[in-house]
């Protein structure tokens, strides 16, 4: 139960960051970051009497209904919560906080807004949820045109960028292109940050003590392989384990004390599934 509460708390933090980015950086500067928020911005530009948050709620309802019949109802409670939570939080900001531009420099607005947007979306995606909108449109395109999902999402964003350019001018359309490209990079980095760990291979003659330290002090499991030096033909044990950065610092300091001749390889593990890490069934 506590894990579920934590997941929804993190998702809430994510879509609030997205709301702030859109309302305080994108909308006042007529810059679109793609997706359903970009479509809502364009419609709001032509029909300002309809709040963006309300537009997003209406579009999400329509898209979820259409997608339910076209591609099936495999969206999940977390995605429904994130999609409508984002729409509702944007409506709250519009209705009660009267948002204004925190900067009128379009480049600053694009960079800072997209950084905040990407972090927020990355946080939501890291919890196996999404904010709906673009994902649903991409799934519908995938159903009818049989394109891969990446191509479908790019196609949706391209359409939004074109609409943005038509509504706000070519210059703002080009800013939208920058936002879409930067957003993808930031989302990937945030997700990697949530899921990444260090993969460590230790070549040593003191495998027993190092293995014991990893299990009992670092609180991680490990696998021990038999190895042989290619130059010396000496038998060596290879200990392989995955851990976080703090645990690696402890292990490295210990190995330095017990086996100065050890050989250590450390690499990034961008996603780790299984016991002690991300649930393999999610």
From TrEMBL:
<dbReference type="InterPro" id="IPR003740">
    <property type="entry name" value="YitT"/>
</dbReference>
<dbReference type="InterPro" id="IPR051461">
    <property type="entry name" value="UPF0750_membrane"/>
</dbReference>
<feature type="transmembrane region" description="Helical">
    <location>
        <begin position="79"/>
        <end position="97"/>
    </location>
</feature>
<keyword id="KW-1003">Cell membrane</keyword>
<feature type="transmembrane region" description="Helical">
    <location>
        <begin position="158"/>
        <end position="182"/>
    </location>
</feature>
<keyword id="KW-0472">Membrane</keyword>
<keyword id="KW-1133">Transmembrane helix</keyword>
<feature type="transmembrane region" description="Helical">
    <location>
        <begin position="106"/>
        <end position="125"/>
    </location>
</feature>
<dbReference type="GO" id="GO:0005886">
    <property type="term" value="C:plasma membrane"/>
</dbReference>
<keyword id="KW-0812">Transmembrane</keyword>
<protein>
    <recommendedName>
        <fullName>DUF2179 domain-containing protein</fullName>
    </recommendedName>
</protein>
<feature type="transmembrane region" description="Helical">
    <location>
        <begin position="7"/>
        <end position="25"/>
    </location>
</feature>
<dbReference type="Pfam" id="PF02588">
    <property type="entry name" value="YitT_membrane"/>
</dbReference>
<dbReference type="InterPro" id="IPR019264">
    <property type="entry name" value="DUF2179"/>
</dbReference>
<feature type="domain" description="DUF2179">
    <location>
        <begin position="220"/>
        <end position="274"/>
    </location>
</feature>
<dbReference type="InterPro" id="IPR015867">
    <property type="entry name" value="N-reg_PII/ATP_PRibTrfase_C"/>
</dbReference>
<dbReference type="Pfam" id="PF10035">
    <property type="entry name" value="DUF2179"/>
</dbReference>
């Amino acid at each position: 139960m506590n894990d579920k509460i934590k997941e929804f708390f993190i998702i809430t933090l994510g879509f609030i960051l997205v709301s702030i980015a859109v309302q305080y950086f994108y909308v006042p500067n007529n810059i679109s970051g793609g997706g359903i928020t970009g479509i809502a911005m364009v419609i709001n530009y032509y029909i300002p009497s309809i709040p963006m948050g309300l537009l997003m709620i209406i579009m999400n309802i329509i898209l979820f209904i259409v997608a339910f019949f076209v591609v099936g109802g495999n969206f999940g409670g977390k995605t429904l919560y994130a999609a409508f939570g984002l729409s509702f939080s944007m409506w709250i900001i519009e209705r009660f906080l009267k948002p204004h531009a925190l900067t009128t420099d379009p480049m600053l607005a694009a960079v800072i807004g997209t950084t905040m947007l990407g972090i927020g979306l990355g946080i939501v995606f890291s919890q196996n949820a999404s904010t709906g909108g673009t994902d649903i449109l991409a799934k519908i395109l995938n159903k009818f045109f049989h394109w891969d999902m990446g191509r479908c999402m790019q196609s949706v964003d391209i359409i939004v960028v074109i609409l943005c350019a038509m509504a706000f001018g070519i210059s703002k359309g080009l800013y939208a292109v920058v936002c879409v490209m930067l957003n993808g990079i930031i989302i990937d980095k945030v997700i990697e940050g949530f899921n990444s760990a260090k993969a460590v291979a230790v070549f040593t003659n003191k495998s027993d003590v190092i293995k014991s330290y990893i299990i009992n002090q670092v609180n991680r499991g490990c696998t021990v392989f038999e190895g042989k030096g290619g130059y010396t033909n000496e038998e060596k044990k290879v200990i392989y384990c995955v851990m976080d950065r703090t645990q690696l610092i402890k292990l490295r300091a210990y190995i330095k004390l017990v086996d100065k001749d050890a050989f250590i390889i450390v690499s990034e593990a961008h996603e780790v599934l299984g016991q002690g890490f991300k649930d393999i069934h999610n």
